[in-house]
Design a protein that fits this description.
It is a single chain. By secondary structure, the chain is an alpha/beta fold. It is built from 11 helices and 16 strands.
Length: 318
């Protein structure tokens, strides 16, 4: 599971940071999942090693412009390329009306399907938002000026590594039988020999997990959805000395993000969604926010545009 940041500024872009967008490459899949899509996100794709044509799912946290204004142009460009088989969009209920209106009023016609999924019920009732054989996605309500939602991606536990040499030593013919053994099944050969898959596999391998959490002030629901995650990506719009402003505007400080990471017992925290006021040369810099968080949660990193992170399994996660 790999994460690529395409936008890490809040509100407006800066010279070095575009507004919110993050891409997840699910393990062992030739597709991309986009989380938020601020203005200019498709330009960030062009500057990266990612391909628009591989986007299969888009997750929107909330309906503020710095998280959605890039969507109409990005969807239209994908349509002009003519190589998409369809995209699923997850987000607040108004998302569909926003996209439909933009496409209708710009006379845009997409040559692929869009399927919308409202997230409110899944967040409220703690239901699984999406699930297949290898992954599941959950969502949770956050605390912002408008409805906002966090997303968690869990990779399911995988079978243990298959001992190929042991299978060969038992003169088990390769092919579908090996696959059945790796799944832990019992197989019978034509000569009457019976083998159990658990005798040829190592211990199960837990999957990795990632949480994307923005925009929000400190809230218990952020802690709950982040528990034991391998990676927590959390907004850090303000410094601790501007806590009052953070509460007024429904955003987090670096201290709040670190407190959530510590209480949720995550492995790694990455700060994103930084206020444009924190630029080099100003009284407070992004590094000051990083140091503020590290004082509470040492394994913290500062996001920057085009940063790529491989999400890794750790002993404290489950």
């Amino acid at each position: 599971m790999q994460v690529t940041f395409l936008g890490t500024s809040s509100g407006v872009p800066t010279r070095n940071r575009n507004v919110s967008a993050m891409v997840l490459k699910p393990p062992q899949r030739s597709e991309l999942w986009l989380f938020d899509c601020g203005e200019g996100t498709q330009h960030q794709f062009i500057r990266s090693n990612l391909k628009l044509s591989q986007i299969k799912k888009i997750f929107i946290t909330h309906m503020h412009g710095d998280h959605i204004y890039g969507l109409p142009g990005l969807l239209a460009s994908i349509g002009l390329a003519g190589n998409s088989s369809g995209i699923e969009l997850y987000g607040p209920a108004p998302l569909k009306n926003f996209i439909d209106s933009c496409l209708y009023n710009s006379s845009s016609r997409l040559a692929y399907s869009l399927k919308f999924h409202k997230v409110e019920n899944a967040a409220t009732y703690k239901e699984i938002l999406f699930e297949d054989s290898g992954l599941e996605i959950k969502t949770a309500p956050l605390k912002h000026r408008i409805p906002s939602f966090a997303y968690r991606v869990n990779q399911k536990t995988r079978p243990g590594r298959f001992n190929l040499e042991k299978a060969k030593s038992k003169r088990i013919p390769p092919g579908p039988i090996y696959a059945a053994l790796q799944r832990g099944e019992e197989v019978s050969l034509g000569n009457g020999r019976v083998f159990s898959g658990k005798d040829f596999c190592g211990p199960p391998r837990p999957g990795v997990s990632m949480v994307y959490c923005t925009d929000t002030v400190y809230t218990e629901s952020a802690i709950e959805i982040s528990r034991e995650a391998d990676l927590l990506i959390h907004e850090s719009t303000y410094s601790h000395k501007e806590t009052e402003m953070a509460y007024e505007r429904g955003h987090s400080t670096a201290t709040m993000a670190a407190q959530i990471a510590a209480k949720a017992n995550v492995n790694q925290l990455i700060l994103t969604h930084l206020s444009p006021r924190y630029t080099p040369g100003n009284e407070t810099s992004p590094n000051d926010l990083l140091n503020e968080a590290k004082a509470i949660f040492p394994n913290t990193q500062l996001a920057k545009d085009f940063l790529q992170i491989d999400v890794k399994k750790t002993c404290n996660s489950s």
